[in-house]
């Protein structure tokens, strides 16, 4: 019996060289019936054998398989290299289809439930299972929905990331959880059914008083924050976040000025967006979040930025501006909450208006640098008589948005609201703009571009109604500034 298992282990290792040339070997592997055999071995009573099988499957499905063959073909002929890459993907698709036909998803999850992780071998087994899931979803993203709907992986992941002891598999589980929740409404709603919002907030609460211990734990914390942001893209989760006192937790994290501070700002940005985030906006002001927020807005506490895992200043400013956009959009006119918001910009001799215009200047400079590149590309295409269509224009617009146009639009939207609601802010802004040889005409131009590029559809009737309202608000702001030029 021992000899036969030893022979089996040796036989499994012989599959590994097949990864060097998937187009040649994978179709034969499928035809031979070996995939069904490997799948059956995942249920072997000896978990060491099952772990060895999972290790082989992780290698076979790795995105880098066939890399040496691809590189060699590309060195010989660029066209041949592209063709080899295509054949490698086709071979991988055939292999994964066969694995799916042999219930690979259920078998992988079944092994998670029987590996205790008290032994190093079991811990390695869990690592290989998670790695195989990552490979499958990376190659075939739609599998994320199927994995969650057809297996118990999601509850296993939630339970795993909630365990107090920290080690590498906990970090890997958080990474897989983040992958499964990306752009998947169905998976987020399933998360809600499992009390995932409560679980994520409880996990993150440990970082309100202390930073993660090392780089790996920083990645774990980052993954949970990303899960939270993915969840908050759905309307139902915004309410659950509010009910679970998520706003209060994020305010506490902003106060402490630890690594979680910038992540909490990002979460609040997501939680407050759209009219469905109105409750979170109101709670934020009610819980005295403005004082803490404007400390971050003014750049206080930036001395700790260089610590492990610090985010970029520009990225942080994007989320700070996003929060202000949501507050000015969602807080009802003439209410105490909105009056408190505007008053914050008045205090300190309008220093926050000056800071807003500083952010605007940085965003504009970044955007103009990209704009110069786009102008050159346009000239080259015109000189070569190449057609410039909607696809090219859309790509250039996205590049502008990523470079700084999005922040510029948000800054001008906030500034326009301030000018409409406070004469002192308007006069101060006008003076500061004049020092840079600018006027409200520049703000109007940005807002007009903002209005003209609002998407035709963000999701059914609700999306169309929201777009219509957004255009109407922008028209009113533009008209007001136009009368103040």
The domain count comes to 3
The succession of helices and strands, N to C, reads: HHHHHHHHHHHHHHHHHHHHHHHHH
| % residues in beta strands | under 5%
Percentage of residues in helical conformation: over 70%
Which properties best describe this structure?
485 residues; mainly alpha; Leucine-rich Repeat Variant; 3 domains; 77% helix
Explain this structure to me?
- The model has no long low-confidence stretch (mean pLDDT 91).
- The chain is mainly alpha-helical.
- The chain has 3 domains: 1-140, no CATH class; 142-312, Alpha Horseshoe (Leucine-rich Repeat Variant), CATH 1.25.10.10; 344-482, no CATH class.
- It has 25 helices and no strands.
- It is globular.
- Helix 19 (289-297) packs parallel to helix 21 and helix 22 packs across helix 24 (440-452).
Q: Gist?
A:
This protein has 25 helices and no strands. The chain is mainly alpha-helical and 485 residues long.
How are the SSEs ordered, and which strands pair?
Elements: H1 2-13, H2 22-31, H3 34-41, H4 47-60, H5 67-76, H6 78-101, H7 104-114, H8 120-139, H9 143-150, H10 153-162, H11 168-181, H12 185-193, H13 196-205, H14 215-231, H15 235-243, H16 246-256, H17 260-272, H18 278-286, H19 289-297, H20 313-330, H21 336-383, H22 390-421, H23 423-435, H24 440-452, H25 460-482
């Amino acid at each position: 019996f021992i000899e036969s298992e030893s022979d089996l282990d040796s036989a499994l290792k012989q599959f590994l060289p097949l990864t060097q040339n998937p187009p040649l070997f994978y179709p034969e592997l499928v035809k031979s019936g070996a995939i069904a055999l490997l799948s059956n071995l995942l249920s072997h009573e000896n978990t060491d054998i099952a772990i060895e099988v999972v290790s082989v499957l992780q290698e076979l499905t790795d995105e880098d398989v066939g890399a040496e063959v691809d590189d060699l073909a590309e060195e010989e002929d660029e066209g041949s290299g592209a063709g080899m890459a295509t054949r490698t993907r086709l071979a991988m698709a055939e292999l994964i289809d066969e694995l799916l036909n042999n219930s690979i998803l259920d078998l992988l999850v079944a092994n998670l439930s029987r590996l205790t992780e008290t032994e190093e071998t079991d811990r390695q087994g869990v690592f290989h299972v998670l790695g195989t899931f990552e490979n499958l979803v990376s190659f075939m993203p739609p599998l994320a929905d199927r994995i969650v709907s057809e297996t118990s992986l999601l509850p296993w992941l939630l339970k795993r990331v909630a365990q107090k002891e920290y080690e590498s598999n906990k970090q890997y589980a958080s990474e897989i959880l983040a992958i499964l929740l990306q752009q998947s409404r169905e998976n987020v709603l399933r998360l809600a059914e499992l009390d995932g919002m409560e679980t994520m907030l409880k996990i993150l609460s440990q970082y309100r008083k202390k930073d993660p211990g090392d780089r790996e734990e920083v990645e774990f914390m980052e993954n949970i924050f990303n899960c939270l942001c993915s969840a908050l893209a759905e309307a139902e989760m915004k309410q659950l976040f509010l009910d679970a006192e998520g706003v209060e937790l994020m305010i506490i994290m902003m106060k402490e000025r630890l690594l979680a501070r910038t992540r909490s700002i990002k979460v609040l940005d997501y939680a407050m967006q759209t009219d469905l985030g109105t409750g979170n906006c109101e709670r934020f002001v009610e819980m005295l979040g403005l004082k803490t927020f404007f400390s971050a807005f003014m750049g206080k506490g930036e001395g700790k930025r260089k610590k492990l895992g610090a985010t970029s200043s520009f990225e942080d400013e994007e989320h700070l501006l996003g929060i202000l956009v949501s507050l000015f959009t969602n807080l009802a006119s003439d209410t105490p909450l909105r009056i408190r918001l505007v008053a914050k910009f008045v205090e300190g001799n309008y220093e926050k208006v000056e800071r807003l215009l500083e952010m605007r200047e940085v965003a504009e400079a970044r955007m103009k640098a990209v704009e110069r590149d786009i102008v050159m590309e346009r000239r080259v295409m015109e000189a070569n008589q190449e057609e410039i269509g909607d696809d090219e224009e859309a790509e250039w617009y996205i590049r502008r948005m990523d470079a700084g146009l999005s922040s510029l639009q948000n800054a001008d939207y906030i500034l326009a609201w301030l000018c409409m609601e406070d004469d002192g802010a308007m006069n101060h802004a006008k003076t500061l703009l004049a020092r840079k040889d600018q006027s409200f005409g520049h703000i109007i131009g940005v807002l007009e571009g903002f209005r003209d590029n609002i998407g035709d559809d963000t999701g059914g009737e609700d999306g169309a109604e929201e777009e219509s309202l957004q255009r109407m608000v922008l028209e009113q702001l533009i008209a007001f500034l136009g009368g103040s030029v």
